[in-house]
Write a structure and sequence with these properties.
mainly alpha, Topoisomerase I, domain 2, two-stranded antiparallel ribbon, 8 helices, extended
Length: about 170
């Protein structure tokens, strides 16, 4: 057994525990520091850390993160070129900050498109097509169906949202 397992050996799930002591400390939380390009590329490679379930983490490990070693820098550069991110020089490094436009766009996207596991699903589907295990026409059809569904959901939610214009 490991030290961590030994440490909690006497505890059981659902058991009621009583605190022995507690104290209040006046401190301030700080947001995480902005990514540098190198840090973001490292996290894109190890995207499995951001999976919400063990199944998602395993899937992200199989596809070896988001993008490839050749495309990760280009992905970041495209986000900068499109006005979604800014480079800000901080000391010797450049930090990446989301722009107001990028933040607004991110807020408008459905959670399914912001999920790191969605990227892994598409990577696996593309790998299946490349290996001949799936047909590209079927993948195109699935993508088309997903886009239609997402657009229908977006239009129906924008009509229901207060303060939105009904005249388009």
């Amino acid at each position: 057994m490991s030290d961590a397992t030994d440490k909690f050996a006497g505890y059981q799930t659902g058991a009621v525990m009583f605190a022995v002591a507690a104290k209040v400390e006046a401190k301030r939380t700080t947001p995480p520091s902005p990514y540098t390009e190198d840090e973001l590329m490292d996290d894109m490679l190890s995207a499995h850390k951001f999976g919400r379930s063990e199944q998602e983490r395993e899937m992200l490990k199989r596809v070896q993160g988001i993008g490839t070693s050749r495309t990760r820098g280009t992905i970041i550069a495209n986000h900068i070129d499109r006005g979604l991110l800014n480079r800000v020089k901080k000391g010797k490094k450049h930090q990446l900050h989301i722009t107001e436009f990028g933040s607004h766009l991110l807020g408008q996207l459905p959670d399914s498109l912001k999920s790191v596991s969605m990227t892994a699903l598409w990577e696996l589907a593309l790998a299946d097509v490349a290996a001949g295990r799936a047909q590209s026409a079927l993948l195109k059809q699935k993508i088309s169906e997903m886009v239609k569904r997402l657009l229908a959901e977006a239009f129906s939610s924008s009509k229901a949202a207060p303060g939105t214009s009904q005249n388009r």
